[in-house]
Amino acid sequence: WNIVSTLNYLPFEKELEIILAKNKSYNSKEGKEKVSNMIKVADLTRKGFVNGDISTVMSPRTVLHWAENTKIFNDHGYAFRLTFLNKCDDIEKKIISEYYQRCFGEDLPESSINVTIS
Question: CA–CA separation, 81 vs 77, rounded Å?
Fold first, then answer.
């Protein structure tokens, strides 16, 4: 038998529910907003992957690890870099940093705004 099946990502609300269930410390208004932004970044990577803009995609498990690492390091930008961005191709880091900036409103060191031209 040859079977091809499509497995899509979870709906936003379900992914949020799972991350919050695994990380009870985010179960506040501010925590939910932070996790929502994390999932929005993941959604942008998924869309970027489908469009051929990037070759690495964030899974729900990666978002879960990002949330856990944020609690460990007390810095969601640093945790993002350690959890996901560091494993991305150098050429794609600027695009992914832009996804992060769109959702969190802050720039990462890898973003194009921090590039100097000599």
Answer: 6
